[in-house]
């Protein structure tokens, strides 16, 4: 089993180093190979997704990805910006199903900005379609505005579109995930305004016929954003498009106290996957040794479960993370009075130590 390790930029290398330590501490050894990506790819090879990095990702059984992006690349032309690396990996590898669990660990109930009674016991799964929608739809660009009161001026435009097969395959992933959990699925759309999402809603409704044991409801995205902060525990599994999923998953992440706790999996049709923390590269705290490595470590657990077929090892990592939280160890993002503040490395070491028990 070969794992491609793509640390990236900002805090990426620090947090990935901790996850690698955890992988190396497992009973079974995996072949790990590291390659530059994002700003680091640009520095090393003049492109955020160097050919050799893409080739490594294609050849690997799974990919561990840190984070990409730094302000210093903001002035580069779009195809050279670090974000293009993750978008390119998703598209090139066909990673259309993005699983973003939002789980509130009981020990962190006080770290949430919401009242404990609103969030305690929270366990929801957001499934975001990841290779379509306005993120990738063509045409796009800046052109001369063809009509209306601004005719003749420059205008920016993007295209929102979803093919039937694209909606069907993500709907199947979502219904099957719901079957393994609370058997409730909420499909989030904007069918009251957008043709694309009326179509989405119709197709998801049609796929539902194959999953009569799952309760499906449809919700507009604005309402979903409101319900996520009002009564998040009403949700079990949420399925939505690329852009709505991007936005809602950040909101859901914050319910759990820190985006530094949340892993994610991006899967293709054969469960090959890329695993990354749900947070970004946080250049403001990079190099300071304070970033929370738990989202990345938990991403390794998802990797073992979904792509490497090692559910037992995944459980071990998740239990080790629960153990260090129970010991009261906290990186600054989840620190509260009465707990022990630790740095990135200490947190990684503590997880490794807890694995041994
Ligand atoms: C995410 C990120 C990416 C996205 C960016 C970095 C392109 O925000 O993974 O949620 O928008 O998908
Ligand atoms: Mn995002």
TrEMBL record:
Give me the comment on cofactor binding: Binds 1 Mg(2+) or Mn(2+) ion per subunit.
Pathway of action: Amino-acid biosynthesis; L-leucine biosynthesis; L-leucine from 3-methyl-2-oxobutanoate: step 3/4
Q: Which GO terms describe its molecular function?
A: 3-isopropylmalate dehydrogenase activity; magnesium ion binding; NAD binding
Biological process GO annotation list?
A: L-leucine biosynthetic process
Q: Which reaction does it catalyse?
A: (2R,3S)-3-isopropylmalate + NAD(+) = 4-methyl-2-oxopentanoate + CO2 + NADH
Any one GO CC term of this protein is: cytosol
Residues annotated as binding substrate? 90, 100, 128, 222
Alphabetical keyword list: Amino-acid biosynthesis, Branched-chain amino acid biosynthesis, Cytoplasm, Leucine biosynthesis, Magnesium, Manganese, Metal-binding, NAD, Oxidoreductase
Record: residues binding NAD(+):
280-292
- Look at the named UniProt entry and state the broad enzyme category this protein falls under: oxidoreductase
Binding residues for Mg(2+), per the UniProt record? 222, 246, 250
Isopropylmalate dehydrogenase-like domain spans which residues?
Answer: 2-351
What's the domain of life for this entry?
Bacteria
Subcellular location per the Swiss-Prot or TrEMBL entry: Cytoplasm
| Enzyme nomenclature, EC number | 1.1.1.85
The protein's required cofactor(s) are namely: Mg(2+); Mn(2+)
User: Subunit structure of this entry?
Assistant: Homodimer.
Family note? Belongs to the isocitrate and isopropylmalate dehydrogenases family. LeuB type 1 subfamily.
HAMAP family per the UniProt record, alphabetical: LeuB_type1
User: What is the name of the protein in this document?
Assistant: 3-isopropylmalate dehydrogenase
Organism, as annotated: Pseudoduganella plicata
């Amino acid at each position: 089993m070969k794992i491609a390790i793509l640390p990236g930029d900002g805090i990426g290398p620090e947090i990935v180093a901790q996850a690698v330590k955890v992988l190396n501490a497992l009973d079974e050894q995996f072949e790990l190979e590291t390659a530059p990506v994002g700003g680091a790819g640009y520095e090393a090879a003049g492109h955020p997704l160097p050919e050799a990095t893409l080739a490594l990702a294609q050849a690997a059984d799974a990919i561990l990805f840190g984070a990409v992006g730094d302000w210093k690349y903001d002035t580069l032309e779009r195809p050279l910006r670090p974000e293009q690396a993750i978008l390119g990996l998703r598209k090139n590898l066909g990673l259309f199903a993005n699983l973003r669990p939002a789980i509130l660990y009981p020990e962190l109930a006080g770290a949430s900005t919401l009242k404990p009674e609103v969030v305690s016991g929270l366990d929801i799964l957001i499934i975001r379609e990841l290779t379509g929608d306005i993120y990738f739809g063509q045409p796009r660009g800046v052109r001369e505005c063809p009509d209306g009161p601004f005719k003749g001026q420059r205008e920016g435009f993007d295209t929102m579109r979803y093919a039937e097969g694209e909606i069907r395959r993500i709907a199947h992933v979502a219904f099957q995930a719901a079957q393994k959990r609370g058997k409730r699925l909420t499909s989030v759309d904007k069918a009251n305004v957008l043709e694309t999402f009326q179509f989405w809603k119709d197709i998801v409704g049609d796929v539902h016929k194959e999953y009569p044991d799952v309760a499906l409801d449809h919700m507009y995205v604005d309402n979903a954003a409101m319900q996520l902060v009002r009564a998040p525990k009403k949700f079990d599994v949420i399925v939505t498009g690329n852009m709505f999923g991007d936005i809602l998953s950040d909101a859901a992440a914050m319910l759990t106290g820190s985006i530094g706790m949340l892993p994610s999996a991006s899967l293709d049709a054969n469960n090959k996957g890329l695993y990354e923390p749900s947070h970004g590269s946080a250049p403001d705290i990079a190099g300071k040794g304070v970033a929370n490595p738990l989202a990345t470590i938990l991403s390794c657990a998802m990797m073992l479960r979904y792509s490497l077929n090692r559910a037992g090892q995944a459980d071990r990592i998740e239990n080790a993370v629960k153990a260090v939280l129970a010991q009261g160890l906290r990186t600054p993002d989840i620190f509260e009075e009465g707990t022990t503040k630790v740095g990135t490395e200490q947190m990684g070491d503590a997880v490794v130590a807890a694995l041994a028990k």
